[in-house]
Amino acid sequence: MKRIQIRTFIATAFMMLFLGSCNEILDEQPRSIYEPGFFKTEKGVYGGLTSMYAHLRYIYGPAYYYNTLVTGTDEATYAQSADNNFKDMDLSGVGSVTSTSSRTDGLWTSAFPNINTASGIIENAAAVGTISGALIAEARFFRALDYFLLVQTFGGVPLDLGAGELKFNTNPVRTSTRNTVTEVYTKAIFPDLLTAINDLPSIGRVKGGVTKTVARLYLSKAYLTYAWWLQNPNNVPTYPETTRTDPDGHDAQWYFQKAYDIATEGIDNPGPFNLQNTYYDVNLGQNDRNNEILLYADHTESSEFYNASSLTYSNGAAPENFAGWMMTWNYTNIRSTGVSSVQREASQPLGRPWVRMCPTIGVIKNTFADKTNDSRYDGTFTTVYRGNWNKAGNTSPTLINANGLPVSPGGAVLTFLNDDNSGVVYTTSTGNIGAGLLAGRSDFVINPSGISRIVYPGLWKLGVYRTDSGTGLGQPNAASTRPFNIAKFSELYFIAAEAAVKGAAPKGGKSARELINVIRARAGKWRWDNNGNTAKVADNSAVLTAATPAIIDINYILAERSREYYAEGYRWFDLIRTQKWEELAGSYQICGNNYGDHTPVTVTRTIDKHHYLRPIPQGQLDGMVMSASEKATYQNPGY
Questions:
Q1: Which residue, 181, 300, 359, 524, has most beta carbons within 10 Å?
Q2: pLDDT 10s digits, 324-364
Q3: What distance, in Å, lies between the first and last C-alpha atoms of the chain?
Protein backbone atom coordinates (compact mmCIF):
# COMPACT_ATOMS: atom_id res chain seq x y z
CA MET A 1 0.00 0.00 0.00
CA LYS A 2 1.26 3.45 -0.82
CA ARG A 3 2.50 5.34 2.21
CA ILE A 4 1.54 8.93 2.98
CA GLN A 5 3.99 11.63 3.98
CA ILE A 6 2.68 14.28 6.39
CA ARG A 7 3.96 17.68 7.46
CA THR A 8 1.58 20.45 8.51
CA PHE A 9 -1.12 18.87 6.38
CA ILE A 10 -1.38 15.46 4.80
CA ALA A 11 -0.24 15.07 1.19
CA THR A 12 -0.45 11.78 -0.65
CA ALA A 13 2.14 10.48 -3.06
CA PHE A 14 -0.36 11.39 -5.77
CA MET A 15 -0.22 14.98 -4.69
CA MET A 16 3.54 15.06 -4.92
CA LEU A 17 3.14 14.39 -8.62
CA PHE A 18 -0.15 16.13 -9.32
CA LEU A 19 1.17 19.39 -7.92
CA GLY A 20 4.31 19.97 -9.92
CA SER A 21 5.50 22.90 -7.79
CA CYS A 22 4.90 21.10 -4.51
CA ASN A 23 8.49 20.13 -3.72
CA GLU A 24 8.96 23.06 -1.35
CA ILE A 25 5.90 21.94 0.59
CA LEU A 26 6.88 18.29 0.88
CA ASP A 27 10.49 19.07 1.75
CA GLU A 28 9.79 21.85 4.20
CA GLN A 29 8.77 20.09 7.42
CA PRO A 30 8.30 16.33 7.10
CA ARG A 31 6.67 15.03 10.27
CA SER A 32 5.76 11.36 10.04
CA ILE A 33 4.64 8.61 7.70
CA TYR A 34 1.23 6.95 7.92
CA GLU A 35 -0.75 4.32 6.05
CA PRO A 36 -4.05 5.43 4.42
CA GLY A 37 -5.79 3.34 7.07
CA PHE A 38 -4.70 6.02 9.49
CA PHE A 39 -7.97 7.79 8.67
CA LYS A 40 -9.82 4.79 10.09
CA THR A 41 -8.42 5.58 13.51
CA GLU A 42 -9.53 8.24 15.95
CA LYS A 43 -6.01 9.65 16.04
CA GLY A 44 -5.94 9.84 12.25
CA VAL A 45 -9.24 11.67 11.98
CA TYR A 46 -8.31 14.25 14.60
CA GLY A 47 -4.87 14.62 13.06
CA GLY A 48 -6.34 15.15 9.62
CA LEU A 49 -8.81 17.73 10.91
CA THR A 50 -6.05 19.59 12.73
CA SER A 51 -4.09 19.71 9.49
CA MET A 52 -7.07 21.33 7.77
CA TYR A 53 -7.03 24.26 10.15
CA ALA A 54 -3.25 24.44 9.77
CA HIS A 55 -3.43 24.50 5.97
CA LEU A 56 -5.26 27.83 6.16
CA ARG A 57 -1.93 29.41 7.09
CA TYR A 58 -0.52 28.52 3.67
CA ILE A 59 -3.31 30.44 1.93
CA TYR A 60 -4.16 33.29 4.30
CA GLY A 61 -1.29 35.43 5.61
CA PRO A 62 1.52 34.78 3.10
CA ALA A 63 1.81 37.94 1.07
CA TYR A 64 2.13 36.73 -2.48
CA TYR A 65 -1.25 35.05 -2.76
CA TYR A 66 -2.75 37.92 -0.75
CA ASN A 67 -1.29 40.28 -3.34
CA THR A 68 -3.26 38.58 -6.12
CA LEU A 69 -6.50 39.44 -4.34
CA VAL A 70 -5.76 43.14 -3.74
CA THR A 71 -3.20 44.59 -6.16
CA GLY A 72 -4.76 45.39 -9.52
CA THR A 73 -8.18 46.09 -8.02
CA ASP A 74 -9.57 49.52 -7.18
CA GLU A 75 -8.16 49.07 -3.67
CA ALA A 76 -4.41 49.03 -4.33
CA THR A 77 -1.53 49.32 -6.75
CA TYR A 78 2.13 48.39 -6.49
CA ALA A 79 4.35 50.49 -4.24
CA GLN A 80 7.91 51.81 -4.61
CA SER A 81 9.73 48.64 -3.51
CA ALA A 82 7.43 46.22 -5.33
CA ASP A 83 8.98 43.29 -7.12
CA ASN A 84 7.43 41.71 -10.20
CA ASN A 85 4.99 39.70 -8.10
CA PHE A 86 3.14 42.95 -7.41
CA LYS A 87 3.80 44.77 -10.68
CA ASP A 88 2.52 41.81 -12.70
CA MET A 89 -0.78 41.78 -10.85
CA ASP A 90 -1.33 45.51 -11.41
CA LEU A 91 -1.92 45.04 -15.17
CA SER A 92 -0.75 48.60 -15.74
CA GLY A 93 2.01 47.99 -18.28
CA VAL A 94 4.87 47.25 -15.88
CA GLY A 95 4.35 43.48 -15.87
CA SER A 96 2.02 40.75 -17.05
CA VAL A 97 0.17 37.83 -15.50
CA THR A 98 1.50 34.50 -16.75
CA SER A 99 1.50 30.89 -15.60
CA THR A 100 4.88 31.50 -13.96
CA SER A 101 4.28 34.97 -12.52
CA SER A 102 0.81 34.59 -11.03
CA ARG A 103 1.20 33.73 -7.36
CA THR A 104 -2.09 31.90 -7.21
CA ASP A 105 0.16 28.85 -7.07
CA GLY A 106 -0.01 29.41 -3.32
CA LEU A 107 -3.68 28.49 -3.44
CA TRP A 108 -3.35 25.62 -5.92
CA THR A 109 -0.53 23.84 -4.07
CA SER A 110 -2.21 24.21 -0.68
CA ALA A 111 -5.80 23.38 -1.61
CA PHE A 112 -5.44 20.07 -3.41
CA PRO A 113 -3.50 18.19 -0.70
CA ASN A 114 -6.10 19.38 1.80
CA ILE A 115 -8.95 18.31 -0.47
CA ASN A 116 -7.45 14.83 -0.64
CA THR A 117 -7.03 14.72 3.12
CA ALA A 118 -10.67 15.76 3.53
CA SER A 119 -11.79 13.03 1.14
CA GLY A 120 -9.77 10.51 3.17
CA ILE A 121 -11.65 11.47 6.31
CA ILE A 122 -15.04 11.61 4.60
CA GLU A 123 -14.57 8.10 3.18
CA ASN A 124 -12.99 6.38 6.16
CA ALA A 125 -13.92 8.11 9.40
CA ALA A 126 -17.30 6.41 9.72
CA ALA A 127 -15.42 3.17 10.38
CA VAL A 128 -14.33 4.65 13.72
CA GLY A 129 -17.16 4.14 16.14
CA THR A 130 -16.26 7.18 18.22
CA ILE A 131 -16.27 9.64 15.29
CA SER A 132 -19.42 11.74 14.97
CA GLY A 133 -21.03 13.13 11.87
CA ALA A 134 -20.06 16.59 13.07
CA LEU A 135 -16.37 15.72 12.76
CA ILE A 136 -16.84 14.43 9.22
CA ALA A 137 -18.79 17.60 8.47
CA GLU A 138 -15.70 19.63 9.35
CA ALA A 139 -13.84 17.80 6.59
CA ARG A 140 -16.73 18.46 4.20
CA PHE A 141 -16.61 22.16 5.02
CA PHE A 142 -12.91 22.44 4.28
CA ARG A 143 -13.18 20.46 1.06
CA ALA A 144 -15.96 22.80 -0.08
CA LEU A 145 -14.00 25.88 1.00
CA ASP A 146 -10.96 24.87 -1.04
CA TYR A 147 -13.02 24.00 -4.10
CA PHE A 148 -14.87 27.30 -3.82
CA LEU A 149 -11.62 29.25 -3.76
CA LEU A 150 -10.27 27.23 -6.68
CA VAL A 151 -13.33 27.52 -8.92
CA GLN A 152 -13.53 31.28 -8.46
CA THR A 153 -9.83 31.61 -9.26
CA PHE A 154 -9.21 29.14 -12.06
CA GLY A 155 -12.63 28.11 -13.40
CA GLY A 156 -13.29 24.38 -13.55
CA VAL A 157 -10.78 22.22 -11.67
CA PRO A 158 -10.32 18.45 -11.20
CA LEU A 159 -12.71 16.55 -8.98
CA ASP A 160 -10.89 13.30 -9.75
CA LEU A 161 -7.45 13.31 -8.14
CA GLY A 162 -6.68 9.81 -9.39
CA ALA A 163 -9.14 7.46 -7.71
CA GLY A 164 -12.43 8.85 -8.98
CA GLU A 165 -14.40 12.02 -8.39
CA LEU A 166 -14.17 13.21 -4.78
CA LYS A 167 -12.34 10.03 -3.81
CA PHE A 168 -9.30 9.73 -1.58
CA ASN A 169 -6.29 8.88 -3.72
CA THR A 170 -3.01 7.17 -2.82
CA ASN A 171 -1.61 6.30 -6.25
CA PRO A 172 0.84 8.45 -8.22
CA VAL A 173 -0.95 10.05 -11.16
CA ARG A 174 0.71 12.19 -13.85
CA THR A 175 -2.41 13.17 -15.80
CA SER A 176 -5.40 15.28 -14.93
CA THR A 177 -8.75 16.33 -16.34
CA ARG A 178 -10.55 19.51 -15.35
CA ASN A 179 -14.25 19.41 -14.52
CA THR A 180 -16.53 22.28 -15.53
CA VAL A 181 -17.54 25.11 -13.23
CA THR A 182 -21.05 23.69 -13.04
CA GLU A 183 -19.77 20.29 -11.95
CA VAL A 184 -17.50 21.71 -9.26
CA TYR A 185 -20.38 23.67 -7.72
CA THR A 186 -23.12 21.06 -8.00
CA LYS A 187 -21.09 17.92 -7.26
CA ALA A 188 -18.70 19.23 -4.63
CA ILE A 189 -19.34 22.64 -3.13
CA PHE A 190 -23.12 22.68 -2.67
CA PRO A 191 -23.52 19.09 -1.37
CA ASP A 192 -20.62 19.38 1.07
CA LEU A 193 -21.83 22.70 2.48
CA LEU A 194 -25.43 21.52 2.79
CA THR A 195 -24.21 18.52 4.78
CA ALA A 196 -21.96 20.77 6.84
CA ILE A 197 -24.87 23.06 7.77
CA ASN A 198 -26.91 20.06 8.82
CA ASP A 199 -24.21 18.26 10.81
CA LEU A 200 -21.91 20.95 12.22
CA PRO A 201 -22.58 22.29 15.72
CA SER A 202 -23.70 25.85 16.43
CA ILE A 203 -20.70 26.27 18.72
CA GLY A 204 -17.33 25.13 17.43
CA ARG A 205 -15.73 21.94 18.70
CA VAL A 206 -12.63 23.99 19.49
CA LYS A 207 -12.05 27.74 19.71
CA GLY A 208 -12.11 28.93 16.11
CA GLY A 209 -13.66 25.66 14.98
CA VAL A 210 -16.10 25.62 12.06
CA THR A 211 -19.81 25.89 12.76
CA LYS A 212 -23.21 25.99 11.11
CA THR A 213 -22.87 29.75 10.80
CA VAL A 214 -19.64 29.71 8.79
CA ALA A 215 -21.05 26.94 6.60
CA ARG A 216 -24.14 29.10 5.94
CA LEU A 217 -21.90 32.02 5.07
CA TYR A 218 -20.00 30.03 2.47
CA LEU A 219 -23.04 28.31 1.03
CA SER A 220 -24.84 31.63 0.61
CA LYS A 221 -21.74 33.13 -0.99
CA ALA A 222 -21.35 30.11 -3.27
CA TYR A 223 -25.01 30.37 -4.34
CA LEU A 224 -24.53 34.10 -4.96
CA THR A 225 -21.36 33.59 -7.00
CA TYR A 226 -22.87 30.75 -9.03
CA ALA A 227 -25.98 32.85 -9.75
CA TRP A 228 -23.79 35.62 -11.19
CA TRP A 229 -21.91 32.98 -13.18
CA LEU A 230 -25.14 31.65 -14.66
CA GLN A 231 -26.31 35.17 -15.47
CA ASN A 232 -22.96 36.30 -16.94
CA PRO A 233 -24.02 39.92 -17.61
CA ASN A 234 -20.86 40.97 -19.48
CA ASN A 235 -20.26 37.75 -21.42
CA VAL A 236 -17.06 36.79 -19.64
CA PRO A 237 -15.87 33.42 -20.99
CA THR A 238 -15.65 30.37 -18.75
CA TYR A 239 -13.27 27.41 -18.93
CA PRO A 240 -13.43 24.52 -19.54
CA GLU A 241 -16.04 25.66 -22.00
CA THR A 242 -19.56 24.68 -21.05
CA THR A 243 -23.08 25.97 -21.38
CA ARG A 244 -24.21 28.07 -18.44
CA THR A 245 -27.09 25.73 -17.69
CA ASP A 246 -27.74 24.40 -14.24
CA PRO A 247 -28.06 20.56 -14.24
CA ASP A 248 -30.95 20.79 -11.74
CA GLY A 249 -32.87 23.13 -14.01
CA HIS A 250 -32.65 26.20 -11.79
CA ASP A 251 -31.99 29.66 -13.17
CA ALA A 252 -29.83 32.46 -11.77
CA GLN A 253 -32.79 33.99 -9.96
CA TRP A 254 -33.41 30.77 -8.05
CA TYR A 255 -29.84 30.85 -6.78
CA PHE A 256 -29.98 34.54 -5.87
CA GLN A 257 -33.01 33.71 -3.75
CA LYS A 258 -31.24 30.76 -2.16
CA ALA A 259 -28.26 33.00 -1.36
CA TYR A 260 -30.60 35.47 0.33
CA ASP A 261 -32.47 32.76 2.24
CA ILE A 262 -29.35 31.04 3.58
CA ALA A 263 -27.65 34.33 4.50
CA THR A 264 -30.67 35.63 6.40
CA GLU A 265 -31.03 32.24 8.07
CA GLY A 266 -27.49 32.75 9.32
CA ILE A 267 -28.35 36.22 10.59
CA ASP A 268 -31.44 34.95 12.38
CA ASN A 269 -29.64 31.94 13.89
CA PRO A 270 -26.25 33.38 14.86
CA GLY A 271 -25.32 30.94 17.59
CA PRO A 272 -22.47 32.56 19.55
CA PHE A 273 -21.69 35.07 16.78
CA ASN A 274 -22.68 38.68 16.42
CA LEU A 275 -21.47 42.07 15.23
CA GLN A 276 -18.98 43.89 17.42
CA ASN A 277 -20.31 47.14 18.85
CA THR A 278 -17.83 49.26 16.90
CA TYR A 279 -15.84 48.75 13.71
CA TYR A 280 -12.68 49.58 15.64
CA ASP A 281 -13.20 46.52 17.82
CA VAL A 282 -13.48 44.14 14.86
CA ASN A 283 -9.81 44.49 13.88
CA LEU A 284 -8.25 45.60 17.18
CA GLY A 285 -5.32 43.33 18.04
CA GLN A 286 -6.30 43.12 21.70
CA ASN A 287 -9.71 41.88 20.58
CA ASP A 288 -8.58 39.17 18.16
CA ARG A 289 -10.74 36.03 17.85
CA ASN A 290 -13.84 38.03 18.79
CA ASN A 291 -17.35 36.75 18.11
CA GLU A 292 -17.67 38.49 14.75
CA ILE A 293 -14.91 36.31 13.29
CA LEU A 294 -16.25 33.03 11.91
CA LEU A 295 -12.98 31.60 10.61
CA TYR A 296 -9.32 32.56 10.90
CA ALA A 297 -5.85 31.20 10.18
CA ASP A 298 -4.42 31.19 13.66
CA HIS A 299 -0.96 32.09 14.99
CA THR A 300 0.46 32.55 18.46
CA GLU A 301 3.27 34.44 20.19
CA SER A 302 3.53 31.84 22.97
CA SER A 303 5.29 29.09 21.01
CA GLU A 304 7.44 28.99 17.88
CA PHE A 305 6.45 25.35 17.38
CA TYR A 306 2.74 26.06 17.33
CA ASN A 307 3.22 29.34 15.49
CA ALA A 308 5.18 27.40 12.84
CA SER A 309 7.63 30.29 12.50
CA SER A 310 10.19 32.31 14.40
CA LEU A 311 8.99 34.81 16.98
CA THR A 312 11.98 37.09 16.41
CA TYR A 313 12.67 37.27 12.68
CA SER A 314 11.09 36.41 9.36
CA ASN A 315 12.18 36.21 5.75
CA GLY A 316 8.59 36.20 4.52
CA ALA A 317 7.50 32.68 3.65
CA ALA A 318 4.48 30.49 4.27
CA PRO A 319 3.08 29.62 6.75
CA GLU A 320 3.93 32.99 8.31
CA ASN A 321 1.42 35.82 8.50
CA PHE A 322 3.18 38.77 6.88
CA ALA A 323 0.49 40.22 4.62
CA GLY A 324 0.30 43.34 6.78
CA TRP A 325 3.87 44.32 5.91
CA MET A 326 3.04 44.76 2.25
CA MET A 327 1.16 48.04 2.65
CA THR A 328 3.56 49.41 5.25
CA TRP A 329 5.84 52.18 3.94
CA ASN A 330 9.28 52.97 5.33
CA TYR A 331 8.18 55.41 8.02
CA THR A 332 11.56 54.97 9.75
CA ASN A 333 13.01 57.42 7.21
CA ILE A 334 11.17 60.31 8.89
CA ARG A 335 13.68 62.60 10.58
CA SER A 336 13.23 65.07 13.42
CA THR A 337 16.43 66.97 14.35
CA GLY A 338 18.22 64.44 12.14
CA VAL A 339 16.95 61.55 14.26
CA SER A 340 14.69 58.71 13.09
CA SER A 341 11.79 59.77 15.26
CA VAL A 342 9.43 56.93 14.31
CA GLN A 343 11.29 53.68 14.92
CA ARG A 344 10.29 50.28 13.62
CA GLU A 345 8.04 48.85 16.31
CA ALA A 346 5.95 45.74 16.86
CA SER A 347 2.72 47.68 17.35
CA GLN A 348 -0.47 47.76 15.35
CA PRO A 349 0.03 51.22 13.78
CA LEU A 350 3.60 50.40 12.66
CA GLY A 351 5.29 47.05 12.02
CA ARG A 352 7.82 45.97 9.41
CA PRO A 353 7.88 48.06 6.20
CA TRP A 354 8.10 46.23 2.87
CA VAL A 355 6.57 48.96 0.65
CA ARG A 356 5.11 46.47 -1.85
CA MET A 357 1.51 47.76 -2.12
CA CYS A 358 -0.19 51.09 -1.58
CA PRO A 359 -3.73 52.49 -1.62
CA THR A 360 -4.70 54.61 -4.59
CA ILE A 361 -5.69 58.26 -4.21
CA GLY A 362 -9.24 57.24 -5.09
CA VAL A 363 -9.40 54.97 -2.05
CA ILE A 364 -8.52 57.81 0.31
CA LYS A 365 -10.65 60.50 -1.35
CA ASN A 366 -13.62 58.52 -2.70
CA THR A 367 -14.02 55.11 -1.08
CA PHE A 368 -13.51 56.66 2.34
CA ALA A 369 -14.93 60.09 1.51
CA ASP A 370 -16.72 60.46 4.84
CA LYS A 371 -14.00 60.38 7.46
CA THR A 372 -16.00 62.33 10.04
CA ASN A 373 -19.09 60.23 10.59
CA ASP A 374 -17.93 56.84 9.28
CA SER A 375 -15.39 55.21 11.61
CA ARG A 376 -14.10 52.74 9.02
CA TYR A 377 -11.36 54.95 7.56
CA ASP A 378 -9.98 55.55 11.04
CA GLY A 379 -10.32 51.83 11.80
CA THR A 380 -8.53 50.80 8.61
CA PHE A 381 -5.46 53.04 8.18
CA THR A 382 -2.61 54.44 10.21
CA THR A 383 -2.86 58.12 9.33
CA VAL A 384 -0.75 59.62 12.13
CA TYR A 385 2.82 58.50 12.82
CA ARG A 386 3.87 59.22 16.38
CA GLY A 387 7.30 59.62 17.91
CA ASN A 388 8.69 56.56 19.68
CA TRP A 389 12.43 57.26 19.77
CA ASN A 390 12.34 56.89 23.55
CA LYS A 391 11.56 53.18 23.14
CA ALA A 392 14.86 52.82 21.27
CA GLY A 393 16.81 54.26 24.21
CA ASN A 394 17.01 57.89 23.07
CA THR A 395 16.29 59.94 26.20
CA SER A 396 15.76 63.28 24.44
CA PRO A 397 12.48 64.67 25.83
CA THR A 398 11.73 66.51 22.59
CA LEU A 399 12.96 66.69 18.99
CA ILE A 400 12.58 69.55 16.56
CA ASN A 401 10.01 68.71 13.90
CA ALA A 402 7.88 70.72 11.41
CA ASN A 403 8.11 74.53 11.44
CA GLY A 404 10.98 74.29 13.92
CA LEU A 405 8.55 73.23 16.64
CA PRO A 406 9.24 70.53 19.24
CA VAL A 407 7.55 67.16 19.34
CA SER A 408 7.53 64.75 22.29
CA PRO A 409 7.36 60.95 22.40
CA GLY A 410 3.80 59.95 21.51
CA GLY A 411 3.27 63.22 19.66
CA ALA A 412 2.29 63.41 15.99
CA VAL A 413 5.39 63.51 13.76
CA LEU A 414 3.61 63.00 10.41
CA THR A 415 -0.10 63.24 9.61
CA PHE A 416 -1.96 62.25 6.48
CA LEU A 417 -4.72 64.85 6.32
CA ASN A 418 -8.34 63.77 5.93
CA ASP A 419 -8.95 66.34 3.19
CA ASP A 420 -6.78 68.35 0.82
CA ASN A 421 -5.60 71.64 2.30
CA SER A 422 -4.34 74.28 -0.15
CA GLY A 423 -2.10 75.73 2.56
CA VAL A 424 0.22 72.71 2.57
CA VAL A 425 3.73 73.61 1.38
CA TYR A 426 5.89 70.70 0.22
CA THR A 427 9.69 70.76 0.08
CA THR A 428 11.91 67.84 -0.88
CA SER A 429 13.80 67.92 2.42
CA THR A 430 10.84 68.21 4.79
CA GLY A 431 11.18 65.45 7.38
CA ASN A 432 13.62 63.69 5.01
CA ILE A 433 10.64 62.34 3.07
CA GLY A 434 9.43 65.39 1.16
CA ALA A 435 6.42 65.93 3.40
CA GLY A 436 4.54 69.22 3.78
CA LEU A 437 4.18 72.02 6.28
CA LEU A 438 1.09 73.76 7.60
CA ALA A 439 1.59 76.99 9.51
CA GLY A 440 1.54 76.55 13.27
CA ARG A 441 1.68 72.75 13.24
CA SER A 442 4.54 70.74 14.67
CA ASP A 443 3.72 67.66 12.56
CA PHE A 444 4.61 67.20 8.92
CA VAL A 445 1.54 66.70 6.71
CA ILE A 446 0.53 65.17 3.40
CA ASN A 447 -2.71 65.78 1.50
CA PRO A 448 -4.84 62.86 0.26
CA SER A 449 -4.05 63.90 -3.32
CA GLY A 450 -0.34 63.80 -2.44
CA ILE A 451 0.02 60.15 -1.43
CA SER A 452 2.53 58.31 -3.56
CA ARG A 453 3.99 54.90 -4.16
CA ILE A 454 6.57 55.64 -1.47
CA VAL A 455 4.64 57.54 1.23
CA TYR A 456 1.03 56.65 2.07
CA PRO A 457 -1.21 55.73 5.02
CA GLY A 458 -0.37 52.31 6.45
CA LEU A 459 -2.79 49.45 6.94
CA TRP A 460 -3.63 49.56 10.65
CA LYS A 461 -6.22 46.79 10.59
CA LEU A 462 -3.64 44.10 9.68
CA GLY A 463 -0.90 45.57 11.89
CA VAL A 464 1.08 43.46 14.32
CA TYR A 465 0.00 43.07 17.92
CA ARG A 466 2.08 41.44 20.64
CA THR A 467 2.01 41.42 24.41
CA ASP A 468 5.73 40.83 24.98
CA SER A 469 7.15 44.19 23.87
CA GLY A 470 7.30 45.70 27.34
CA THR A 471 8.37 49.35 27.16
CA GLY A 472 10.55 48.81 24.10
CA LEU A 473 10.10 48.29 20.37
CA GLY A 474 9.47 44.56 20.71
CA GLN A 475 10.08 42.20 17.77
CA PRO A 476 9.08 44.20 14.67
CA ASN A 477 11.06 41.93 12.33
CA ALA A 478 9.02 38.85 13.18
CA ALA A 479 5.94 37.89 11.21
CA SER A 480 2.64 38.77 12.80
CA THR A 481 1.47 36.42 15.52
CA ARG A 482 -2.10 37.61 15.08
CA PRO A 483 -4.67 35.37 13.40
CA PHE A 484 -5.51 36.26 9.82
CA ASN A 485 -9.26 36.79 9.71
CA ILE A 486 -10.90 34.87 6.86
CA ALA A 487 -14.67 35.09 7.38
CA LYS A 488 -16.80 37.54 9.34
CA PHE A 489 -20.39 37.42 10.53
CA SER A 490 -20.96 40.85 8.98
CA GLU A 491 -20.66 39.43 5.48
CA LEU A 492 -23.99 37.63 5.84
CA TYR A 493 -25.62 41.08 5.66
CA PHE A 494 -23.72 41.96 2.49
CA ILE A 495 -24.51 38.66 0.78
CA ALA A 496 -28.22 38.97 1.54
CA ALA A 497 -28.24 42.62 0.43
CA GLU A 498 -26.49 41.82 -2.85
CA ALA A 499 -28.89 38.97 -3.54
CA ALA A 500 -31.82 41.33 -2.84
CA VAL A 501 -30.40 43.89 -5.28
CA LYS A 502 -30.28 41.08 -7.82
CA GLY A 503 -33.95 40.33 -7.37
CA ALA A 504 -34.27 38.03 -4.36
CA ALA A 505 -37.55 38.65 -2.53
CA PRO A 506 -36.84 40.30 0.85
CA LYS A 507 -38.37 38.83 3.97
CA GLY A 508 -38.96 40.02 7.51
CA GLY A 509 -37.76 43.60 7.21
CA LYS A 510 -34.54 42.67 5.50
CA SER A 511 -34.51 44.68 2.29
CA ALA A 512 -31.15 45.47 0.72
CA ARG A 513 -31.21 48.95 2.26
CA GLU A 514 -32.18 47.67 5.70
CA LEU A 515 -29.42 45.08 5.64
CA ILE A 516 -26.76 47.55 4.56
CA ASN A 517 -27.95 50.02 7.15
CA VAL A 518 -27.22 47.54 9.92
CA ILE A 519 -23.58 47.71 8.81
CA ARG A 520 -23.62 51.47 8.29
CA ALA A 521 -25.21 52.07 11.68
CA ARG A 522 -22.36 50.18 13.31
CA ALA A 523 -19.85 52.17 11.22
CA GLY A 524 -21.20 55.36 12.76
CA LYS A 525 -20.35 54.29 16.29
CA TRP A 526 -17.02 55.36 17.74
CA ARG A 527 -15.31 54.51 21.02
CA TRP A 528 -11.73 55.32 20.02
CA ASP A 529 -10.08 57.72 17.56
CA ASN A 530 -6.90 56.21 16.09
CA ASN A 531 -6.02 59.48 14.38
CA GLY A 532 -6.20 61.43 17.62
CA ASN A 533 -5.01 58.52 19.80
CA THR A 534 -7.78 59.25 22.25
CA ALA A 535 -11.12 57.97 23.43
CA LYS A 536 -14.02 59.19 21.31
CA VAL A 537 -17.60 58.43 22.22
CA ALA A 538 -19.82 59.29 19.29
CA ASP A 539 -22.83 57.78 17.54
CA ASN A 540 -23.30 58.95 13.99
CA SER A 541 -25.51 56.02 13.06
CA ALA A 542 -28.52 58.17 12.22
CA VAL A 543 -26.45 60.35 9.90
CA LEU A 544 -25.00 57.41 8.02
CA THR A 545 -28.22 55.44 7.68
CA ALA A 546 -30.13 58.52 6.52
CA ALA A 547 -27.49 59.04 3.81
CA THR A 548 -28.01 55.55 2.38
CA PRO A 549 -29.81 55.83 -0.97
CA ALA A 550 -33.45 54.77 -1.00
CA ILE A 551 -32.63 52.31 -3.77
CA ILE A 552 -29.15 50.88 -3.76
CA ASP A 553 -27.39 49.18 -6.65
CA ILE A 554 -24.47 46.81 -7.08
CA ASN A 555 -21.94 49.62 -7.24
CA TYR A 556 -23.15 50.86 -3.88
CA ILE A 557 -22.90 47.36 -2.41
CA LEU A 558 -19.35 47.08 -3.74
CA ALA A 559 -18.37 50.46 -2.31
CA GLU A 560 -19.70 49.44 1.08
CA ARG A 561 -17.90 46.11 0.88
CA SER A 562 -14.63 47.95 0.21
CA ARG A 563 -15.17 50.24 3.17
CA GLU A 564 -15.87 47.25 5.38
CA TYR A 565 -13.25 44.79 4.12
CA TYR A 566 -10.61 47.02 2.58
CA ALA A 567 -7.38 45.09 1.78
CA GLU A 568 -8.51 41.94 3.58
CA GLY A 569 -8.44 39.87 0.38
CA TYR A 570 -12.08 40.12 -0.67
CA ARG A 571 -11.84 42.61 -3.51
CA TRP A 572 -10.69 40.61 -6.53
CA PHE A 573 -13.37 38.00 -5.86
CA ASP A 574 -15.97 40.77 -5.52
CA LEU A 575 -15.01 42.36 -8.83
CA ILE A 576 -14.86 39.14 -10.83
CA ARG A 577 -18.11 37.84 -9.31
CA THR A 578 -20.02 40.97 -10.33
CA GLN A 579 -17.96 41.45 -13.52
CA LYS A 580 -17.19 45.04 -12.49
CA TRP A 581 -13.41 44.77 -12.58
CA GLU A 582 -12.76 46.89 -15.68
CA GLU A 583 -15.43 49.44 -14.75
CA LEU A 584 -14.22 50.08 -11.23
CA ALA A 585 -10.49 49.38 -11.49
CA GLY A 586 -9.63 50.22 -15.10
CA SER A 587 -7.70 53.31 -14.03
CA TYR A 588 -6.42 54.90 -10.85
CA GLN A 589 -4.46 57.89 -9.58
CA ILE A 590 -1.23 57.84 -7.58
CA CYS A 591 1.87 60.01 -7.20
CA GLY A 592 5.34 58.77 -8.07
CA ASN A 593 8.15 56.66 -6.61
CA ASN A 594 10.28 59.44 -5.11
CA TYR A 595 10.12 61.34 -1.86
CA GLY A 596 8.60 64.75 -2.45
CA ASP A 597 6.57 63.63 -5.49
CA HIS A 598 3.02 64.86 -4.85
CA THR A 599 1.76 65.23 -8.42
CA PRO A 600 -1.03 62.72 -9.16
CA VAL A 601 -0.75 60.66 -12.32
CA THR A 602 -3.61 58.73 -13.89
CA VAL A 603 -2.64 55.15 -14.72
CA THR A 604 -4.68 52.95 -17.05
CA ARG A 605 -4.90 49.20 -16.64
CA THR A 606 -5.43 46.65 -19.40
CA ILE A 607 -7.97 44.20 -17.98
CA ASP A 608 -9.02 41.67 -20.60
CA LYS A 609 -11.79 39.12 -20.32
CA HIS A 610 -9.31 36.26 -19.95
CA HIS A 611 -7.91 37.90 -16.81
CA TYR A 612 -11.13 36.95 -15.01
CA LEU A 613 -9.50 33.54 -14.57
CA ARG A 614 -5.97 33.15 -13.27
CA PRO A 615 -3.57 30.87 -15.17
CA ILE A 616 -3.04 27.29 -14.07
CA PRO A 617 0.37 27.37 -12.33
CA GLN A 618 3.28 26.31 -14.50
CA GLY A 619 4.42 23.85 -11.86
CA GLN A 620 1.20 21.90 -12.32
CA LEU A 621 1.72 21.72 -16.08
CA ASP A 622 5.37 20.74 -15.72
CA GLY A 623 4.46 17.91 -13.36
CA MET A 624 2.03 16.22 -15.74
CA VAL A 625 3.06 13.60 -18.30
CA MET A 626 0.86 14.82 -21.13
CA SER A 627 1.43 16.10 -24.64
CA ALA A 628 2.07 19.77 -25.29
CA SER A 629 -1.36 20.09 -26.90
CA GLU A 630 -3.04 18.44 -23.91
CA LYS A 631 -1.26 20.84 -21.57
CA ALA A 632 -2.29 23.76 -23.75
CA THR A 633 -5.89 22.57 -23.51
CA TYR A 634 -5.54 22.22 -19.74
CA GLN A 635 -4.36 25.84 -19.42
CA ASN A 636 -6.86 28.69 -19.29
CA PRO A 637 -7.18 30.64 -22.58
CA GLY A 638 -5.05 33.75 -22.93
CA TYR A 639 -2.11 32.34 -20.99
A1: 359
A2: 999 999 999 999 999 999 999 999 999 999 999 999 999 99
A3: 39
